[in-house]
Write a structure and sequence with these properties.
Blueprint: H1 2-6, H2 8-42, H3 46-69, H4 71-74, H5 87-96, H6 100-108, H7 116-119, H8 121-160, H9 166-196, H10 201-206
Helix pairs in contact: 2-3, 2-9, 3-8, 8-9
């Protein structure tokens, strides 16, 4: 901590670079997932596409459920949840709830450490728990299963041949490399987050 206090600017720049890297990986993941889904569907690998969609959807739905479940504590600085107050805000929240994980992932999760005072203590504390939970759920429910599926497809195509074009097979290798980077970055981010600001298991389960 003493070294960190003496080099606050360097740690700040490193934190910003890490946040930008996480956002870049997020969109790279989206791109590779879309390429694989289109490839599976075009070439008749229906069950592979179903599995891929399932792996993507499960952690996203879990994140949406966590946001809705903990809304009264996380967003109480912005919305009065008592009956008869802020009705329009409540309606807008539930209408936008399907896209809130996307908003949190892109705009809040990478940068909430720099925005603590701006977003308030309640939302800042929630985002620390959200980041750890999101990292864990995406690693276990999406990244690792997707990696296994992608490795299986690459090995199958190498050993038995498949009806994919070379560009599509190259997309598999890009997807596998992307998943490896994603798992490594998320595990590192989760470790640092828990070391700097540990959270209780009951908070994790409550999401």
């Amino acid at each position: 901590h003493t070294f960190k206090n003496k080099h606050k600017r360097a740690f700040y720049v490193a934190g910003v670079c890490n946040a930008v890297l996480n956002v870049s990986l997020y969109f790279l993941d989206v791109y590779t997932d879309i390429v694989l889904l289109v490839t599976f569907l075009v070439h008749g690998w229906f069950w592979s596409s179903v599995g891929s969609i399932t792996f993507i959807a499960l952690p996203y739905l879990l994140a949406m459920y966590g946001i809705v479940r903990t809304r009264k504590q996380a967003l109480k600085d912005y919305i009065d949840w008592d009956p008869g107050y802020d009705t329009c805000k409540k309606v807008l929240f539930f209408l936008l709830s399907p896209i809130l994980p996307l908003v949190f992932d892109v705009f809040l999760m990478p940068f909430h450490g720099f925005m603590g005072r701006c977003i308030g203590d309640n939302l800042s504390n929630f985002m620390t728990q959200y980041e750890a939970t999101r990292t864990l759920s995406e690693t276990v429910m999406e990244s690792i299963p997707q990696l296994c599926l992608q490795v299986y497809m690459v090995i199958y195509c190498r050993m038995n041949g498949c009806n994919f074009h070379r560009v599509h097979l190259s997309a598999f290798f890009v997807a596998v490399q992307s998943t490896f980077r994603r798992v490594d970055v998320r595990c590192s981010t989760s470790h640092n987050s828990q070391r700097e600001k540990p959270f209780q298991k009951k908070n994790l389960l409550s999401m």
